[in-house]
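REQUEST
  id: r-88c1
  op: predict_structure
  target: MFS transporter
  payload:
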Amino acid sequence: MASSLGTLIEWYDFFIFGSLAVVLSTKFFPSDNPTAAFLSTLATFAAGFVVRPFGALFFGRLGDMIGRKYTFLVTLLIMGFSTFLIGCVPAYETIGFMAPVLVLILRLLQGLALGGEYGGAATYVAEYAQPHRRGYWTSWIQTTATVGLFVSLAVILVTKTTLTKEEFSAWGWRIPFWISILMVGVSYVIRRNMKESPLFAAAKKEGKTSSNPLKESFGNKYNFKFVLLALFGATMGQGVVWYTGQFYAMSFLGKVMNVDSTQVDTIMAASLFLGTPLFILFGWLSDKVGRKSIILLGMLLAIFAYRPIYRAMYHSVNLTEKTVVKDSETLKRTSKVHDKIATDSLITFHTEKTFTDGSSLKKDSIVHWAPTGPVIKDGKPEAAKVDVAVTVDPATRWKLIALLFLQLVFVTMVYGPIAAFLVEMFPVRIRYTSMSLPYHIGNGIFGGLLPAVATYLVTNAKDTGHAEWYLEGLWYPIIVAAVSLIIGFFYLNGKDRNVED
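RESPONSE
  id: r-88c1
  status: 200
  body:
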């Protein structure tokens, strides 16, 4: 519980940035191009994932030399203070380009800290657990990533509902970042009183710890072979399945389907709440039937199910297929002076519609208006900004929760057993280092880049007029998971590697 609590808080800190990506894009980046600002926010979000392998190397080495406990005490403090400070950075309008620069630096520190946290927590728990129950006990660590995301969404929802929309936009979005420092303080006190892992303590007492974990992990050809197999045959595919089922799904609901942000949070939170127990189930099951078979089956199901699932999600909220309630449509027009061109105006067209199935639409189109009329670009009025919010009916909301839950089944299959799978591949003396690197490359690089890459593919397909443009972002996780599935099936064939302690 102590290990899981600290790891949960670190994931909360790490994911609060992604959970607020839409809001942060308006605060830390120029507002004249919303799409570019959102992509820049996703790129900053992804930067935290990219540096995770470096954190794995740095803190993994420390963990194998001085101990698991003290290493993930340090990572906890780095993560907590970095998250708190993100909530203190002034907006772009106040300090200009220093805002995104400072946020990027703090995001990189978050990534380094998480790179050292996960391997330490998973190793620590595994080294306490009985060998035949490692899948079950380490699966509690696996829940922390999803629960951390759930907690981040819950905190955001409470903050949004407590404050007005204007208050949340002005300063309320900072509260979830500030709360982090309180949670980190509690976790630090708990972790400080923990004892060292018994297996590591015994190895250290007997003088069997490694003096150069990096060299032994990656300079030894036999061990390095298993590092590569763990990466390309397991964690690479696991990473993209994890991030598709949670972060890309959330981005898809908000940016592609234009579902109201509060509804996105509640739909995601409900599916996460229902799906989280499955981590424990598949971790326990991996003790009975093996880790690899469950992980690879999860990848296989995801590969074939993603496109039908996302097609069903999109069409459930596709307004072109809905009927407007008669006389429900309203249109209001307001104007203000252009910020940069004194002779021009910005006209806001506010539209509201209600549909027969109970869903509704609110749309604000801000058009650049010159004295001679609307400014025309590419044959149509230039929209400075378009905000669309679709509120779905209860039946559709439950349908979306079910479709997200189905994706979480795949997530829990690949992620529930992965900690025990990785721990058992490497000996105690270099375990922290050896397991951390493939995990964080698979999740940090292949998984962490997924939201930005998939969003780019969708945007590009939409601009070129592709018929099913909204599905194009799925090719990235499908291809990566397919490659990992093939490598894992052929080169991790037979029993899971289990290094005796």
